[in-house]
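[SOLVED] Need 3D model of a four-part complex

Original post:
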Amino acid sequence: MASIKDVAKMAGVSVATVSRVLNDKGYVGQHSREKVEKAIKELNYKPNEIARSLFKKHSNTIGLIVPDIMNPYFPELARAVEDTASKLGYNVILCNSDENKEKEQAYLDVLKQNYVNGIIVSSNTLTAEQIEALNIPIVSIDREISKGLPTIVVENKKGAKAATHFLKSKGRKRIGHIRGTAGVVNAEERCGGYREAVAEEPWFTESYIVNGNYDMESSIDATRELLGRHPDIDGIFAANDMMAIGAIKAAYQLGKKVPEELAVIGFDGIVLSSVMIPELTTVAQPIYEMGELATTVLVNLMEQQPMEKTYYTLEVELIERRTT
Amino acid sequence: MASIKDVAKMAGVSVATVSRVLNDKGYVGQHSREKVEKAIKELNYKPNEIARSLFKKHSNTIGLIVPDIMNPYFPELARAVEDTASKLGYNVILCNSDENKEKEQAYLDVLKQNYVNGIIVSSNTLTAEQIEALNIPIVSIDREISKGLPTIVVENKKGAKAATHFLKSKGRKRIGHIRGTAGVVNAEERCGGYREAVAEEPWFTESYIVNGNYDMESSIDATRELLGRHPDIDGIFAANDMMAIGAIKAAYQLGKKVPEELAVIGFDGIVLSSVMIPELTTVAQPIYEMGELATTVLVNLMEQQPMEKTYYTLEVELIERRTT
DNA sequence: ATTGGATGTGTAACCGGTTACCCTTTTTCA
DNA sequence: TGAAAAAGGGTAACCGGTTACACATCCAAT
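Solution:
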């Protein structure tokens, strides 16, 4: 591969001049510029980003840490981040943390050692101190780590409340809730929204809430338990779409018709929800938009642009489909 | 951040010695080693990977180029690649090419400029010349680019044939095929397998094959057309799962019951196929395993390990579920 | 005519590691 | 006992860029 020295030699100038035309910075005479440009073309010269990074102390790369890219929420997010980053001239390093504290810290270290400019992270094990210690711009997405940190989340509580009210408006009399993973902030919030919506109902007791794990399997079991406890339940609000699917599977297993005997509404609006049969009614997050926003906020942070706002709570949209 | 010089100063040795203990290479006395290790711990020193990369001419990173991470086939692949790479000490840069020639070439250039050690790519627009010109280890996955290049694919033809035979064994008399994207090698192969399986059938004509685009929407239209042409079709082999889902949707729209009136079998075995309702019968690729294998092959290539084989054609598994 | 700012360009230090090379000391063994 | 080999460790060049600084030239304003 040709280096800047080769270009300089061919153009008959110094490396400094080549660097100047490369970066369009400093004074360069018309004549020199042309010679350099010609040499660059002739040698098909591409500057070495690693050498650049060493000097600049950052590598035009951003780290994306997600729990698991196989979780259907994240591919869309990853795509949005990569699209936006790419457009702005950054690469994306993908990291799967499995919500594991050690893995996360290890990735943070590796990313820092690789001089990433910034990090987008979806995590609930990370602490504000850990992040501040890193001293790299970070934006948190889908999950709030701390009020002070740049964050992109959605109206979890509001959406959950709307979902539950929607079930009521459809004439459902007994509505159960399958909670998300214990300890995850958005699971608390969604559960809170559900609670607010049913608080006044005479039939409501805590036993209408069961714990799921944000995945399908846990939800199948949870739903069977819930339906066993309360056979009169005719509506379920699941804290995410995968659990809503689990609920539907459980209903089928128990011989209950969806939506006739049991209406189900999910949360997230993953692609799967519109693809499955029957199509799932859900409270959709603007996932792509969130990824986009997270990336632009992060890049602004990295480039030290002045910003009026770094904490965004986005609106959520209830999409009615076939399961309600 | 502490640098190697700080460590050297604190330990009272030269940077060369620090480097030697870091890399466990060359002679280092017990006494020096201990002093250096103590200094490293005390300063929480982590070597700067970028500086290392500059000298080594590679960055312990591999590029992963996929058409679109939102396509449900790829998250599992990406996960396998990242897991394996991470285990072996490499980072993964994620690139979405949208099957676009220019984007792909641009990414290849960027990756090269970033001194990636190797690249895993799923593409059918790339040519062998392009890849050889790059002069970086590459393994192709899911799609063959050239016989000579390291490649991980599956028995497309065999699987397709098995799928079609399976439909026959279930008593289906007229079996249609929804082809994958024109020009994609595996679409040709799967179509070839179908052809072989139905070649002897008296009813078979080319009109039992329709073109899809490996996505759900194209398949809905294609299926409606196919079923319009041949209302007697009672079995469909779709060249991938997303198209199989489209076929099922189309069947529902037309009032046909699946599987009673129309059996549907897909190909790929994406997570979605087991999650949807009804669960999809499919010819499953060992996606995770493919990603794993691709990564280990690539790493062996990068590390110049001797290898007996770099072209793998993996077995495929027919999983019977509810749609047949 | 003088001077000071703008323009143009090269030299060399620097980013933070690795390692070739050299020198000294210790060990091994004929 | 002496020479060769092994062990230990420092100096400085190098990877491929960027940029501070020095120096030269040119032009406009005084």
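Edit: Chain A touches chain B through 48 residues (CB under 8 Å).
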